[in-house]
Amino acid sequence: MTTSITIKITPQDFDLLSDMQMEWGDQGWINRVNEGRFEDTEIALLAQPMKWAYWFDSPISCILAKSYLASNKEGFFTTYDLASESWVIFTNYATRVDA
């Protein structure tokens, strides 16, 4: 069964959903991807051109963040970070909003 609900999320709300965020891309992350840091290495490799990574300790927060990005037609990839034991979303969407 699938249920649809409507939740209004602002960029500030999106920013508060993540537990950590940082620029992705060229910061030596590809070595960590190749070392098997992420549950789905293929997804992490596909995400290489993305500009931002957002980590979520809560699966619910990750689901809300994915819904926000999808509703705003923002591309993203999601996998699990085995080192931090949290979900990660790679995207070009950036907030950098003060909470």
Brief rundown of the structure:
The protein has 99 residues and is α+β, with helices and mostly antiparallel strands. The chain has helices at 11-17, 29-34, 41-46, 59-71; strands at 20-23, 52-56, 76-81, 86-91. A hairpin with a 4-residue loop joins strand 3 and strand 4 (86-91).
Architecture overview:
With 99 residues, the chain is of the alpha+beta class. The protein has one domain (11-91). It is built from 4 helices and 4 strands.
Q: How do the strands and helices of this protein lay out in sequence?
A:
Blueprint (H helix, E strand, L loop, with lengths): L10 H7 L2 E4 L5 H6 L6 H6 L5 E5 L2 H13 L4 E6 L4 E6 L8
Antiparallel strand pairs: 1-2, 2-4, 3-4
Essential attributes:
99 residues, alpha+beta, 4-stranded antiparallel beta sheet, 4 helices, 4 strands, 32% helix, globular
Please give the largest β-sheet: 4 strands, antiparallel
How large is the count of helical segments?
4
Q: What is the distance, rounded to the nearest whole angstrom, between the alpha carbons of the first and last residues?
A: 35 Å
Computed CA radius of gyration, to the nearest angstrom? 13 Å
Q: What portion of the residues fall into strands of 2 or more residues?
A: 15-25%
Low-pLDDT residue intervals, each spanning 5 or more residues: none
* Average of pLDDT: 89
- Widest sheet, order of strands: 1-2-4-3
Helix amount: 25-40%
Tell me the number of strands.
4
Q: Give the number of domains.
A: 1
